Request: fold
Amino acid sequence: MLNYKSVFIAILVAYIIGTMVLGVYFAMHGIELRYVSLLEVVIFFVPLLFVVGSDNSKDSGSELLAIYKPTLGGYFKLNKFPISITPFILWGLVGVMLMEMGVDVVSVRLLPDSIMEYYIQITEKYLEMQNSLSINGSGTLLEMGEIILLVALVPAVCEEFLFRGYLLRNLLVHHSVGYSVCISALIFSLIHFNPIALLPIFIIGVYLGMLYYATGSIFPSIIFHFCNNLFVIISANYEDSNSDAMLGLWLAFGIIVAGGILVYWTYSRIRKDCGVGNV
Reply:
């Protein structure tokens, strides 16, 4: 029988190695980095379907892979959820994005001068990576559709199946809700290899985890994740790179508070409609 921790670690190691190899190969041959997302289908999604589907254990008291229903739909919580919560999911996204914006400004403003140069170098490399999301004005609708598929939809589905449908689901069986959500969100943020957005991605991971916990379904998390990725694509094409620099420190704190209030309100409404502890 397989231990869920061993399976998860094996998947992460394979993904890290695969990302490094493909990153070098793509750079050498001038291939857009967005195609790396296809690696998630191969390493995140397919192995989970095979491993979960092949394990019929029903022993909920152990750390075995399948701890509830042996069916794939039951295991990954492919459950229906109230459509009425969809607007609150989207408003929650607005709140999280406000918090991200504020945290980004505060982080830059509070960084010591000694590490500002290093931060700028990382920022420049990250902006170079964002170019793979841009259609540069000459792109077609087909290219934009390809970017949305590879950068927004594929990661949303594959990452939610792995981090919420698999890792968080198993953690909740053995640990408290707060610990499980935070650990899954921390690993989720680290695996993006983006030191600039480490804290914002962690915030997103926490909200995704709580959304999964409250609704008892993986679909709301996928919807939220997809919309967030879509916003990143839009930002890469239309956002002014100096817009955040115009915000003052106190205004950034205010934006964080406003975003937090909006997130709390939307999550409370979701809890009210769905109940808590459905996982």
Summary: The CA atoms of residues 36 and 183 lie 25 Å apart.
